[in-house]
Task: structure prediction
Amino acid sequence: MKGKALLVGILLITTIASANLFVVDTKDHDVKESTVIKPIKARGHEQLLAVEGKEIKNALKMTALPTNIPVANTEDTEFHPTIASSGSIFFAGYTYAPSIIEQYIYMAVSLDGGETFVPAGYWNIEGALDYPSFDHWGGNTFYGTFMPDPNTAYMYLMEIMDITDTATWGLVYWDWSSYGWYEFKEPAIACHNSQDPWEFGVIATIASTEYEDYPCVDAPHMFFADPDAEGTGWISWWPEYNYSAHAAATIDKARNMFYCAYDWYNETAATWNILLWVRSFEDPLAGSNMIEIPSSFYAMYPAVAAYNDKIVIVCQSDEHINQDIVCFYSSDGGATWSTSYVTNAPEDDLYPSLIISGEKVICTFVRQGNLYYTYSEDWGATWEEPIKLNEVDGSVSSEFRTAAICEAGAVWTDTRNGNADVYFNTFPVPILTVDVSGGFGVKATVSNVGTATAENVPWSIELTGLVFIGAKKEGTINSLAPGESTTIKSGLVFGIGPTTITVTAGGVTETKSGFILGPLVLGVS
Result:
């Protein structure tokens, strides 16, 4: 994508949100009656608009910040961190504010499992930038985005083609101001490499526009790449959901589905509800579905994770006067929903974040100036007792996006030194990596680079195309200790022609292309 003209379209969604059953099944409180969500019809019809994207030349500037933990601890202010990981590689970012009028997006990389972070530079762009969001795409490739200066209507995409080589890092942007857009807020990115190389994933954000007959104020927006034309992208929005506040994004890597979550002020009910916007990653232009999840309480600050049609959304709830973390969970792709409580303590629990790590769903939140984490092993139905992650009591800043989570740990804004810094710590979890190769059939090395043993890990190897024998193989890895590796195999295959290889181990999916010639699988890349 970098170095080429980019065309970006605008898509106004006209699909009808299907009816969904919402079942409330609380853990600590009385069970409420089920509520049926009625279909919601979007107004208007599809609108398209092409815009040329621009690459920012020489945007990356190197830095000389401290090279060890914490991630950043200068005398200036660092806050709103983000983090993404691949095995023992961690890619962190944060907002750096040397003065009240300057804010930059700084980056740091760890190649040793988070033991040390090396400064990797910053984006040399004028204005007050904020709220970075990074995610791992595949291999050594990461993507990112961040909120533009409030006086501009830009959408940024960071292209980190090789995390170990800053010469491959680039930045592009789209200017929407001439078409009536303003105030892009707090974007969130989710990535996956199962489609064409230019399809990075999805960005969810809140924005406003005066565009033609379809204006909106603080409405849900979604940005994604065109599946058929490299260099073309689409932005879509729901103008009937004005007065949304925050956005989150994830990709179901087993089903290739986008899930973007938003909190939206429902003026009719005079409360905040959660919206879930669903779209196919394989065919994103086929239409989409907006699911409105009703609640009798204020539901705000959503975070979302999904895998194999299981969806977990966590958010803040004021149902019991104080703030708790409530979980909406579905096991059928969003057709039906239930709730549980991640936390239900007398203290306020705030600003959750969420990630899938192996067979666990991990949630972090802030309580009385500390960062806690908990996890669910049944996709949101029940949650374990929370554990404090920061070591200095009361040092975690309490605000939206004060912390961010990856499969192996979390970063947070820390005030122990009298100003805002960024710190990191790991969870005791197994972290799996998958290395795929060909030959006689397909082999994959599954390694545990985490800090806990992985047990009963389901795996599968699937080949698409003209495969007559051995198109899919499944099994279970009984146990894999930290630092150990094992090899899984497809067994005998037979076919001819191009093939796409998808290897899954636990919650990790690796996709490769190759060529199958009889029993041989060649050119795996």
